[in-house]
Design a protein that fits this description.
alpha+beta
Length: about 140
Amino acid sequence: MRGLLLLFLLFLTPFDAAARPANHDVEDLGAVAGAVLACGAYKPLYQFEEILSRYFANTSANDVEEETLMRRYASSKASTFRVMRRRGDNCGSTVSEFSRSKFFSFELYSDGSLRDPNGKFFYPRGRNGLAKDARKIYPAPRGR
């Protein structure tokens, strides 16, 4: 039940460059990740964290803000993992809901740029466009 509540909070989290993640949003994301980690779903969690780390980097004003977001995320993830590892509730539904989150619709490019499901790009700090040689690496292009 707690896992489903955490996933519901994930879907409510705004992912927009103008609305940088608030502290409680970052902690909610960490809590969801901790629950998924406790369920042993390493592959979707790895993909989620790869995209999330680029999102934090591309929407943070500077390195200090990015590091603060990552520390809060990691702390919340670790706390939830410890609790959920002991309980192990609803792992099947938790992982299933997590795998359908909006984050898995993001595209990650080799230069660190992200494209959200609405087509909006989030470029690395100091950039205002894709690098000429950037290619989509997640989701993997068809035919690979």
